[in-house]
Design a protein that fits this description.
2 domains; 18 strands; 405 residues; 28% strand; alpha/beta
Length: 405
């Protein structure tokens, strides 16, 4: 663990000119380029060819989260513009319940132009479902760099999901350096997104089209889903010199009994689409380890802390860990496991479930780049040099890679 904690983030820097960051996606998602890293060999193809590189009968896991219009703008009577960025629900804390709230909802939020919002409530009027609705925002206690914000509105026929749909703006990544456009509402969602809750897209999935999904199924590749609601912390840079000084953000996950059964049927051998799927799947192993040691653990107890994987060296197999999760669901009569993770995957990490990754090209000095480095046993720079020299497009709307160590 000490070796991982003392990783110098400056060792994971590389030059990324602004003109290599894709500001918009391609018109056809699956015409993006695909870098294939297979057993150390590098090649270049088009994303629609992905099924050709995967074995029939294998399992591919997607993150089905949907990006919400989490950015709200209010103007004070003085003219000052205040931005409220919804991070995660507080009251009620369950995402689905919160989105169905009427009249009141509370969220943990980032506040832009905070100095101009010293006191008092903010208000804004808009038409929602044919009704004139006044939305009021009241700032509560500070929680680290965020605040509790209570939202109230004066129409019982309108849910908080409706409020965000009308009042909210889709939060595209800050490094795009542009305003959100109407087209982003479609292009910044995966075609299989369904569970609302993310404030950033699981961008590796943006390349998939119905045609590619059909081609995967036609080859006999089984498709399954998990849910991890991507938080704003995914863009949080590592500012400490060493990894030990970086605090990973918490993200909420949900995994169905069916998905755990499919993971077991495939003997914990998975192609993960995106780093969010990777973090969810690898967290499942350590949740199973916790249950092996404490079968009566609660869902809160199953939360995986940042350094959990490095603090113990369990000899439990991935299949045994997954079986403990199924047994837990059976004991509690649950169809879905709801919990959270702060897992950080960096060099020194031993992958338990994920054997192949589909992922985009990540920012320099980011935890996502560390995750990739851990997966390819430190060979990340050769991959990124190849992508830079070959004209690949980077970050959320950029090209993709298939990593098979």
């Amino acid at each position: 663990m000490e070796e991982t904690k003392h990783i110098r983030i400056s060792d994971y820097n590389y030059p990324l000119p602004d003109d290599r960051i894709a500001k918009f996606p391609l018109a056809e998602r699956d015409r993006s380029r695909l870098l294939v890293y297979r057993h150390g060999q590098l090649s270049d193809t088009v994303f629609s060819a992905l099924p050709a590189y995967l074995e029939p009968g294998s399992l591919m896991v997607f993150n089905n989260t949907k990006v919400i219009q989490a950015r709200l703008h209010f103007r004070k009577p003085t003219g000052a513009l205040i931005e409220i960025f919804c991070l995660e629900p507080i009251e009620p804390a369950d995402y689905a319940q919160n989105f169905q709230q009427t009249r009141h909802s509370a969220w943990l939020c980032l506040v832009g132009h905070l100095k101009k919002w010293k006191e008092g409530a903010l208000q804004r009027e808009m038409t929602v479902k044919g009704e004139q609705v006044t939305l009021t925002a009241t700032r509560g206690e500070c929680r680290g760099t965020s605040f509790r914000v209570d939202f109230e509105w004066d129409c019982a026929a309108v849910t908080f999901a409706d409020i965000l749909e009308v009042f909210g703006e889709l939060p595209i990544p800050p490094y795009l350096n542009r305003a959100t456009q109407e087209s982003d509402k479609t292009t910044y969602q995966t075609v299989y997104s369904k569970i609302k809750g993310s404030v950033a897209a699981p961008t590796a999935g943006l390349h998939f089209t119905p045609a590619v999904l059909d081609a995967l199924k036609a080859k006999g590749i089984e498709l399954s889903e998990v849910t991890l609601h991507v938080g704003a912390g995914t863009f949080k840079p590592v500012k400490s010199e060493e990894l030990e000084g970086h605090d990973m953000h918490t993200e909420h996950i949900a995994v169905s009994r069916h998905t755990i059964e499919r993971l077991l049927a495939h003997r914990a051998d998975v192609t993960a689409v995106g780093t969010t799927s990777v973090r969810t799947l690898e967290s499942l192993y350590y949740m199973g380890v916790k249950l092996a040691e404490a079968p009566d653990a609660t869902e809160e107890d199953l939360h995986i802390r940042q350094w959990t994987p490095y603090e113990t060296h369990p000899d439990l197999s991935a299949e045994a860990a997954l079986q403990h999760l199924l047994d837990y669901l059976d004991r509690h009569g649950l169809e879905t496991l709801h919990t959270s993770t702060q897992i950080i995957i960096a060099p020194g990490y031993d992958y338990k479930i994920v054997k192949r990754i589909v992922t985009n090209f990540h920012q320099p000095q980011s935890t996502l780049l560390l995750l990739v480095s851990a997966f390819v046993h430190g060979d990340w720079r050769r991959i990124y040099d190849y992508a830079l020299a070959g004209g690949f497009r980077f970050l959320s709307y950029g090209d993709s890679s298939l990593l098979i160590p």
